Amino acid sequence: DSGVTQTPKHLITATGQRVTLRCSPRSGDLSVYWYQQSLDQGLQFLIQYYNGEERAKGNILERFSAQQFPDLHSELNLSSLELGDSALYFCASSVGLAVWETQYFGPGTRLLVL
Amino acid sequence: EDQVTQSPEALRLQEGESSSLNCSYTVSGLRGLFWYRQDPGKGPEFLFTLYSAGEEKEKERLKATLTKKESFLHITAPKPEDSATYLCAVQAIKGGTSYGKLTFGQGTILTVHP
User: Fold this and answer.
1) Furthest-apart CA pair in chain A: how many Å?
2) d(CA A39, CA B29)
3) What residues contact residue B108 under an 8 Å CB cut-off, 6+ apart?
4) Alpha-carbon span B81 to B49, nearest angstrom
5) Is A34 touching B (CB cutoff 8 A)?
6) Could you tell me what percent of chain B has a pLDDT over 90?
7) Which tens digit of pLDDT belongs to each residue from B51-106?
8) Cβ–Cβ of B43/A107 closer than 8 Å?
9) What is the pLDDT of residues A24-50, one digit of tens each?
10) What are all long-range contacts of B61-66, with beta carbons under 8 Å and residues at least 24 apart?
């Protein structure tokens, strides 16, 4: 158990809908990262937050947005969902911003868009 | 753009048959190379971080090494419980700024038969 929690574990929804994925980092960690894992693309970095502020962005679609709250939990919002958004979404956390820090991953949310 | 290539895509071993997994990378300024293990439907589990060429790290039956262009994950006398997907990822520094983004390879699926 990495100490990172994600809810829900599974999510089934329809195209055009909007969903919110939630992540609680390990106790004491200030950085939160979101990754998407699909069969054809592998694990892809989406976005990083540090202590409530956006720090880095990957290939995140404009339909996707994220935020980190004062209690350090983070939410990833996916809107106007398409079939291709079906994937595993992982959250990871690390202590701060130092490059030598390990990112610990949560168990993931499996999203299925029908 | 940072690139990580892992080989082979899949590897089948008999219990006790040692082997190596390869991770080749192209990155402008490597700050860290990470190895993770991922079981089906689970989040990646951290194994090792390597920072400079010549560095080696060991954990039970696993040993990771790093050169300027690639990393190897050596598995000695593997057991069936070592079966998993092994992921390699790099973290880079760009323009003087450190980013937390991990760029992952596609992974090597290891199956160890009893």
Assistant:
1) 40
2) 28
3) B6, B7, B8, B9, B10, B11, B21, B85, B86
4) 22
5) no
6) 81
7) 999 999 999 999 999 999 999 999 999 999 999 999 999 988 765 555 678 999 99
8) yes
9) 999 999 999 999 999 888 899 999 999
10) B64/B35, B66/B33
| DSSP letter assigned to residue A103 | P
Asked if A99 lies within 8 A of B101 by C-beta distance, the reply is no
Peptide bond into B8 cis (omega under 30): yes
Q: Compute the radius of gyration of chain B from its Cα atoms.
A: 14
Pick from B92, B88, B78: which is nearest to B108 by CA? B88
Closest-CA residue to A66 (of A24, A111, A20): A20
Q: Which of residues 78-97 of A touch B (CB under 8 A)?
A: 88, 90, 94, 97
